[in-house]
Structures are given as C-alpha cells and as structure tokens.
Amino acid sequence: MAFVEGKVEEERLFGGVVFPKTLFPSNAGEDLAIAVAKERNHLSKVLKEHGAILFRGFDVGSAEDFSRVVEAFGWDEMGYVGATTRVKMANRVFSANEIPLDQSINFHHEMALTKEYPSKIFFYCFEPAPLGGETSIVPSNVIVEKMEEQMLKFMEKVSDIGLIFHITRPKEKIQGSVDNSWKCLLKTDDVVEAEKRVREKLSCTSVKFNNDGTAKFTYGPVNPVREFGGKKAWFLPILGYSENKKGVDISFGDGSDISREAIDAYKGILEENCVDLKWKKGDVLLVDNLTIQHARRAGRPPRAIYVSICK
C-alpha cells in the first residue's frame, strides 16, 4: 500500500465517516502520481465513501507534478465554463480564480448552472496564504438533511414549486470589480453567437439581452436539490457565488420571496458543518463535485491554488 491513513485537525465525522479522508505517503519520497496509478480503483471507492480525499506529505512541487497526479487517475478532462478567468499553468492545470483574496467565495458546486458539470475537482496548493485563504468543504446531503429538520415548510415549498434564479450580467467588466460580464462568461461579445452558446452550454430557461448592454439569465423554476448516487445534494446555492450579490435575484417559482429566516438557516448550517482546510504546500485535495460543496475563506496574499476538473 502506497498510502498511510492520517488525520488533520480540521476533519469531522458525518454518520461515522471521516471527512475529508487524509492519506500520507507510506515511504519518504513516494511519488504521488505513481502511487495513484497503482491504487486508483481503491481511491475511487474511498472518494465515493468520504466525498473528499486530502493527499498530504507528498513531493508535489510544481504545476507539472500536479498535472501528472491528475493524469494518473485516468478521468477525462473537462473544459471550464464560467465568468472566472483561469490561467493555464500546465496540462489540465489552471489557476483557481481572479476574485481578490480579501473577499470570500460562497459555497457552491462547480459549474452548477451549466448543462454539463464536472464530477470531480482537484485542488493543489502551490503556495498557501500566510493568513486565511482556507478552502472550505461541506457534504451537500448534510445541508439538505439539516434544512429539512429546521425549515420543513420551506423545503416542502421548494420541492413543490421550485426556485427561480435571475442573474443579470453587464456586457463588459466593471472597473474595480471582478469580471462578471456575459462577454467573459460566453467568450464572445456578439449577441447572436452569445445566444447560441447559452443554448449549448447553460441550463437557463431564458436569456434576455437588454438595450443597456446587460443580459438577464433566468433559471427555473427548478428544484435546487438533486440526487446523485443515492445522496441528496443542495446543488444550486441560494447565497450567490461571491459576497457581492448585485445582479442576483432568487425567489420561489410563484415569484414570492424567500424568507430571511430560511436564508439565515441555510448560512448557519453551512458554517456549522463545514471543514475549513488549512493548506500546506504540496497538498492535493480531490473533491466529489456531485456531493460536496466548496468555498474559499478570505485571506492575505500571496496564495496560489491550482485546479483541474474532470468529467
């Protein structure tokens, strides 16, 4: 066995199952890519059971080393669709995002609003932040279970009539802010081509390009809760992607407002059940994107986390 089971201070137990599962090298100098290639069937079972695996203590010193680890699992590469600019660092390896480190990123499933979303995400720590900057993870089924316990009537209404997500994006990046433009999202500024790409890539029910240059994307009515492999997942988050929720409007399928009580309960459950992973240089975190939400805590630069996504 190339791995030794370990622990991290932040880990938690859900239903008697440790989260995340932490694996260390069995021998000094163990090559993670080679170890993965030998054990990938076993590791797939571990991921299914635990939802996330942290590989710590291996000599993964570069984006190229990380690329070899990703390739060793043998899963197909997937292209990124989203309004975040990612810089290619190596084969199948990209920078995480461009949102400034002094801002947090809310919990979400990667590319949840697209027609095709990744099943797995790899994170690699090239350089940890000197303060903060943790990547947070939480089992999405736990969110559903706790919401059903605390907000049963709300959950029944969600199941009955769904939610509608209205997201309004500018055409161009607004100076001094993160690029949330539809031009960045769709990689074109031509409206005809943009409409085509919306139909091809996004799961929205409609899009309207306005005279002021903005575009309004409407998703739903849709149930934000889905089921994967027998586990429920709160797949479409109700908090928005970042702290700046300008342009995001979420309501029930009949147009009525979501109560503040429900939103506060949702936020509280996330905070009470998440793991804030404190990065160490060389860490590789593998996450099941269908069952686990992830987020980022605010921190201080420099911080370099790379990502790779798989079908």
Automatic annotation (TrEMBL):
GO terms for molecular function: oxidoreductase activity. Pfam families: TauD (PF02668). This is Clavaminate synthase-like protein. InterPro entries: AlphaKG_dependent_hydroxylases, TauD-like_sf, TauD/TfdA-like. The lineage of its organism: Eukaryota, Viridiplantae, Streptophyta, Embryophyta, Tracheophyta. It comes from Acorus calamus (Sweet flag). Residues 38-301 form the TauD/TfdA-like domain. Keywords: Oxidoreductase.
